[in-house]
Amino acid sequence: MLRAVIVDDEQPAIDLLKILLEGTGEVQCVGEYCKPSEAAGAIPALQPDVVFLDVQMPGINGVELAATLIDQAVDTNIVFVTAYSEYAVQAFELNALDYLLKPASPKTLERAVARVLKLKQQPLKSCGTGGVGTQIRCFGKLEVRQISDDSMVKWRTAKVEELFAFLLYYRGTIVRKGAIIENLWPECEPKIADGNLHTSVYQLKKTLRENGVDIAVKFIGGGYVLEPGPNVEYDVAAFEAFAAKGERVDADNVGEFEKMTVLYRDDYLRYADYLWCLAERTRLQKYFVDLAKQVARYYMGAGSCGKAEQVMLRSVEVLPYDEDAYELLLKICSLQGDRPGMMKYYEAVQTALQRDLAIEPRPSLKRLYESLMNNF
Q: Could you report how far apart the first and last alpha carbons of the chain are, in Å?
């Protein structure tokens, strides 16, 4: 049996709808409210499968109540019931399951009930009870992968994907609604932007739930917070946690440093054009480049110049104009007696700087190059 709540400011309309719903033999009405404010307070505790909302009501209208339920993280389906067809667009912008015109007929109600039953019967993936259940990758292309069946989460829209990435960046921190709108819908009218946000939050929660992703999205104190559970492995979080330890590379931990250089497979959200992520991308680039230089210097001291060279080549892929990195490459080639290598790397940085920035290599790098070449 489906658990249903009816909200309408006219009691006769509630009574008729209740008779029709319970007449299907599939629905139990667990709540009836003439005042939307009372419904907003009661529905979270009732946890209904479906809420039938009248659109035009005094105080809080049906569309506003639906948005409130989304903010409250109420996991329910919404069906709008109204005498005015012009509200259909607003209804479906809030991802309503169905839209019924008054007076609702038994046939249209049976259709709505059948849709709710179909959704309820769809199996949800499990989040798992131990170990890693979900892997999130933000180095390179955003990927959310379920370990159990190696499936990738597919986002309903590009904005839902961006909303997830944005809240993931601030994970564990409440982000006010205004800040989300300013970054994701900066050019929209306030009312439209607010509707876009509610719709995207609803779809995000639904996508995470249906894919068994152990991540909660909560509305707290006028903002949203994303909270990854213990079964989630996130590459950026692991990278930042390692960097925060501030360790210096040595024989005991060089393996951990190597893992971090592999973990940073590409720049943060490399293929996304989100303006809000540019500063974070630059910050993480710097972390990686500093880490790579530490590893390269360790390998140079240990006589493993080939490994040191490979690490620094990764570094200059990330920051192609980093003259400190090219300085290390020249020294590595010198230790290996590789004169052609020194010429290749100096010419590479010189060409890149001249072509893209219209500048010459810094004097200290030029002097180092000439000094090392003269020693051969």
A: 86
> Does 331 lie in the same domain as 202?
no
> Residue 116 domain-assigned?
yes
* Three-state DSSP class for residue 9: coil
> Does residue 128 lie within any of the structural domains?
no
**H or E segment to which residue 259 belongs:** helix 254-263
CATH number at residue 13: 3.40.50.2300
Q: Which of 213, 232, 251 is the last residue of a domain?
A: 232
Buried b (16+ CB within 10 A) or exposed e, 76-93: bbbbbbbeeeebeebbee
d(CA 295, CA 251): 11
Q: Domain range holding 164?
A: 134-232
Express each pLDDT in 124-179 by its tens digit.
555 554 556 899 999 999 999 998 888 999 998 999 999 999 999 999 999 999 99
Predicted confidence (pLDDT) per residue in 244-256, tens digit: 999 999 999 999 9
Domain count, the chain: 3
- Strand 134-137, strand 77-82: pairing: unpaired
Q: Which residues of 4-29 are buried (b: 16+ CB within 10 A; e: fewer)?
A: bbbbbbeeebbebbbebbeeeeebeb
In this prediction the pTM is: 0.78
The two beta strands, 232-234 and 134-137, are: parallel
Q: Single out the residue in 121, 156, 187 at which a domain terminates.
A: 121
Q: Strand order of the sheet with strand 151-152? A: 151-152, 143-146, 134-137, 232-234
